[in-house]
Specification:
Elements: E1 9-14, H1 17-25, E2 34-37, E3 46-47, E4 49-50, H2 52-55, E5 63-64, H3 65-71, E6 76-79, H4 82-97, E7 104-107, E8 110-114, H5 117-121, H6 123-137, E9 144-149, H7 152-168, E10 176-178, H8 186-189, H9 201-209, H10 215-219, H11 223-230, H12 233-242, E11 257-262, H13 270-290, E12 293-304, E13 307-318, H14 321-338, E14 345-357, H15 370-390
Parallel strand pairs: 2-6, 9-10
Antiparallel strand pairs: 1-8, 1-9, 2-4, 3-5, 7-8, 11-14, 12-13, 12-14
Organism: Pseudochrobactrum asaccharolyticum
Catalytic activity: DNA(n) + a 2'-deoxyribonucleoside 5'-triphosphate = DNA(n+1) + diphosphate
Domain UmuC: 9-200
Length: 424
C-alpha cells in the first residue's frame, strides 16, 4: 500500500450552499440571515439550510423554525428550490473543471480532485484560482472551503478544519487548510472525534467502551484493533487513511431507490400521506427503470407523533408501475388497519429494495406472469419516453397533483445529486 510523500488530494466544500445560492440569485437576501425551509406558509417544520449570517446567531441546519426564530427574530425564511441548486451545482462544476479536473462529486456541495504537479507545488495558488474563477463567473456570494492532504479522507478533514478556523476568526467561508505529510499527525489531533469521517454516534459509543475519546487515541490504536471495534475491514481502512496511506474508495453497489418527504400540514392525514407517497413511488420507479434495475421489495416508513411505523412487502422481480403500485396499496392497507384513523403523519419514506440488474432478472417460477409484466413494461417504457421527450409529466397513471412546495422526488439532498428528470 502506497504512502504519499506529498499532498495529492483536494477536497472542496461549498459554504452554506443552498442559502448562498439563494443569496447569489436574489439581491434582497444578501447580507441578511436566511433559512431555507421545505415549503412556505408554516412555522411547523425545520430550517434545512442557513446562511452564514444566520449561523452567526446560532442557527443551525435541521433546526425547528420556532427555535431558529428565537435565536434570530429577523431570520428570512425561503422555500427550497431544489432544481435551482442542481443547476448551480452543475454550473460550479463546469467552472472548477476549467481549473482542475474533478475526480468525484461526493454530494451536491462537496467534491474531490487529484492534484497535478502544479497543484502539489502551489496549493495556495490553486485554491485562489478556483475561488476567483467561481467569483468572476458565477458570483461572489457562493464561497467554498478547501482542504489539501495526502489522501481524500485527510483532505476532507483538513477542509472542515479550514472552515472551522475561518469561523473562529470571524470570517466564515473561504476556509483553507493544507496538511503536508511532514506536518502530520499534529493537525489531526486537533480534530474532534465526531469530525472524523466514519465515526458516527454509534461508533463513538463503541470507541468509548474501548477508552477512545479523542482523535489522538484513535490514531494510536493498531489496525487490527480498529477492525475489531468496527467489526469490519472499514476500521482497518480508516487506520491506514488516518496514517496517510493512499486509500481508494470501495466501489459502491446500488442498494435501493427511494424518496422521503416532510409533509405539508394539510397532507398529514393517512389519506394525504398516501397520495404523496404514491407520487414519490412513481418517481422512484422512474429512476429504477432509467438505471435498468428491478426490485423485489417495497418499504414504507412513516414518522408519527413520538413514534414511527415501518413495513416491508415482497414483490416478484418487477419494475413496472402497475406491480409496484399494487404492493404500495397493500402497505397502506396495513397502515389503515394498524394506525388510528386520526393519526398525524409528519414524514413519509418509500423505498424500492432487493435490487437486481435488468440483465440478471430471475423470474418467479411460482408466479408465471411474465406476459403481463412485459405488457406493463412496454406501456411504462412508452410513458417514460414521452415524459422525457417533453421534460414534463404529461402521461401518468392516476392523478398527478404534487403537494405544496412541489419537488416530489427532487427535494433538497445532501447525499444524492438530483438529475433533471427528478423535477418533472
Amino acid at each position: 500500500m502506497r504512502k504519499p510523500e506529498t499532498i495529492e488530494r483536494l477536497y472542496l466544500d461549498f459554504d452554506g450552499f443552498f442559502a448562498s445560492v439563494e443569496q447569489q440569485c436574489d439581491k434582497r437576501l444578501r447580507g441578511r440571515p436566511v433559512g431555507v425551509v421545505p415549503f412556505e406558509g408554516t412555522d411547523r417544520t425545520a430550517v434545512i439550510a442557513c446562511s452564514k449570517e444566520a449561523k452567526a446567531y446560532g442557527v443551525k441546519n435541521v433546526m425547528k423554525i420556532k427555535d431558529a426564530k428565537a435565536l434570530c427574530p429577523d431570520l428570512i425564511l425561503v422555500p427550497q428550490k431544489p432544481d435551482l441548486y442542481r443547476r448551480a451545482h452543475n454550473a460550479l462544476l463546469c467552472e472548477i473543471e476549467s481549473v482542475i479536473a474533478i475526480d468525484t462529486a461526493k454530494s451536491i456541495d462537496e467534491l474531490t480532485c487529484i492534484l497535478d504537479e502544479r497543484g502539489r507545488r502551489d496549493p495556495e495558488g490553486l485554491a485562489h484560482k478556483i475561488k476567483e474563477t467561481i467569483k468572476l463567473n458565477v458570483g461572489e456570494f457562493i464561497t467554498s472551503s478547501i482542504g489539501f492532504a495526502a489522501n481524500r479522507q485527510l483532505a476532507k478533514m483538513a477542509c472542515k478544519a479550514g472552515k472551522d478556523a475561518s469561523k473562529r476568526a470571524g470570517q466564515y467561508g473561504n476556509g483553507l487548510a493544507i496538511w503536508h505529510p511532514n506536518m502530520m499527525p499534529n493537525p489531526l489531533f486537533e480534530v474532534k472525534l465526531a469530525d472524523v469521517p466514519g465515526v458516527g454516534d454509534n461508533m463513538r459509543m463503541r470507541l468509548a467502551h474501548s477508552q477512545v475519546i479523542t482523535t489522538e487515541q484513535l490514531y494510536n490504536l493498531q489496525p487490527k484493533h480498529m477492525r475489531k471495534i468496527w467489526r469490519s475491514v472499514n476500521g482497518e481502512r480508516l487506520w491506514y487513511a488516518l496514517h496517510g496511506y493512499d486509500i481508494q474508495a470501495i466501489p459502491q453497489k446500488r442498494g435501493m431507490f427511494g424518496h422521503g418527504r416532510v409533509l405539508p400540514p394539510e397532507s398529514r392525514s393517512i389519506n394525504g400521506a398516501y397520495e404523496i407517497a404514491r407520487l414519490l413511488l412513481v418517481k422512484a420507479g422512474r429512476r429504477l427503470r432509467r438505471e435498468e434495475y428491478y426490485a423485489e421489495a417495497l418499504w414504507l416508513w412513516l414518522s408519527v407523533r413520538d413514534d414511527s411505523w415501518f413495513r416491508i412487502v415482497k414483490m416478484p422481480t418487477v419494475n413496472d408501475e402497475q406491480a409496484i403500485m399494487t404492493a404500495h396499496r397493500m402497505l397502506w392497507d396495513y397502515v389503515r388497519r394498524e394506525l388510528p384513523r386520526n393519526t398525524t403523519i409528519f414524514r413519509v419514506g418509500i423505498t424500492l429494495a432487493d435490487l437486481s440488474q435488468a440483465n440478471a432478472r430471475q423470474l418467479d417460477i411460482f408466479n408465471n406472469d411474465d406476459v403481463i409484466r412485459q405488457k406493463w413494461e412496454r406501456a411504462n417504457g412508452a410513458m417514460d419516453a414521452l415524459n422525457a421527450k417533453y421534460s414534463s409529466t404529461i402521461v401518468h397513471m392516476g392523478e398527478w397533483k404534487p403537494p405544496a412546495g412541489g419537488h416530489v422526488g427532487g427535494k433538497i439532498s445532501y447525499v444524492r445529486i438530483p438529475s433533471a428528470e427528478d423535477f418533472y
